[in-house]
Amino acid sequence: MCNACGNPAVPGHWTDAGAATPGDRLRARFQRAALLNKILRPYGLSAYDDGVVPGVQLSTLSGSTTIVPDLGSLWAEAERLIGFPIDPLNAAFLDV
Q1: Pair 48, 59: CB distance under 8 Å
Q2: Which pTM was predicted?
Q3: Residue 3: predicted pLDDT
Q4: b or e along 21-53 (b: 16 or more beta carbons within 10 Å of the residue's beta carbon)?
Q5: Beta strands in 1-74 (DSSP E)
């Protein structure tokens, strides 16, 4: 594994289940990033996944960015950045 970028990514994360081809995995990553942005935007955070860097880039409005390897880490880091828990099952997000 590359110490600079973390490539190659650890294979087989549960969020990739059902993706039969590399193209399917890439589309799923882009769709996941779009949904994450809808959930994180009210908290002043954004998620970016370019399909090249393993993991998701999590950014604040001030420009601070960190790369998280998976969704579990993303929620923990987002909560650390804003200082309180995020409930992704909050009724406000159920229509997203």
Answers
A1: yes
A2: 0.74
A3: 53
A4: eeeeeeebbeebbeebeebbeeeebbbebeeee
A5: 45-48, 56-60, 65-68
